[in-house]
Fold this sequence. Notes:
Layout: H1 9-24, H2 36-46, H3 59-68, H4 77-97, H5 117-127, H6 137-144, H7 190-203, H8 208-215, H9 235-265, H10 269-285, H11 288-292, H12 296-303, H13 312-328, H14 336-350, H15 359-363, H16 378-389
Helix pairs in contact: 2-9, 3-4, 4-6, 7-8, 9-10, 9-14, 13-14
Amino acid sequence: MSSLAWIDFDEAERQRAQRIMALFQERESRDELGLGAIRDSIADHLFPGTSTIQTRLRYMLFIPWVFRMLEGRDVPENQLRAEARALEIRLADALKRGGETNGIIGRDAGPRLQRLPSSVYWAGLGAWGIRLFPGSTDSLFVSLRGFKRWQRPSDGEDTAASPAARAIWTRSLPAAPKDLLDQTAFALTIDEAQFIIDRLIASQPATLLTFLAREGIDAECDYIWTHPHFAAFPAPARRLIRHGEIFSEVMHGATLLYNLALSELRGRDDWAADYRKRIASWTAELDRPALSGWSLDDFWNAVEHPAHSIRPAAKRFVMQWLELVADGAGQIASAPAGRQLVEERERRLKTTQSRFTNHAVRDRWSGASGVARLGFRWSQAKSHLRDLAHAE
């Protein structure tokens, strides 16, 4: 008699750690000052299921289609894992044969690929209700062995007792193209786009991502707060975006100051001069009326998210930085208090790996860490919405 392995908490935590490490390898996602929980809380409220390492939306279908090819294979889990990896690599080749050049995960790495598409999209598949199995990919490989395709339960079936009652993917998942691994592309069909919209409506009905997908709103703008249809957004989304805009603006100065201080420690006058100019521009562009009327208490209430814990130290850092900016943003580049606040924050977070105290780590610094303004994954959401709007 076979048995099902459900959530493997150790494995789930291991994969979560891998995803976090992958995020920190992305230049725009580095969290040098411990603002990640705040950033991700806002992003997950607005655009749940997205991540900064996602590329194209059709991967939300590619992954279930590939994994369905493994169902019913009565082989050891290690072989299933190896076969899944091989299929994901074949998918990259099929996309290249289909004429795609950008957004292919593993386009250049081939068999050396380390970050598989399934690891990039697994959490999003669950958040959007496409994946029903609650565990990690490794726990799924354990569960798949010896089982035929799992189906939803019949009416009256005991879902707690019946392994077959627990489905891996939602039953409405569209069928895979017959030539999926021979030649494919990122363009969604109309039916595939409607399926994704339906899943968003069912699983994330109150989010901005679902609103934009349902309404077919596709717009090109750098930040969500500059969206041409902002006035039509639901009121809770507008409130959160306004908070996010101010938070992104004010904390951008802290990251610029962090990079300036390190540039000076490295003796790179050219880098330092550039950061001083950027800080001067930041100071000139600050929306002081919005900043003076900003309620931190309301901000913390708005960004609270069950998946993210914002530590008191992070809240103190934001509050203290805000006070410094309010008292004299024009002097931030040279004010000792600002530099001390930023340096102490980074040293507490990184301890022995702090760039301020560890010369070897500082010498490996490339000259830019987290210097882009926080965008709360609008770039990825915008790409996904574009793919939906251009379905054929």
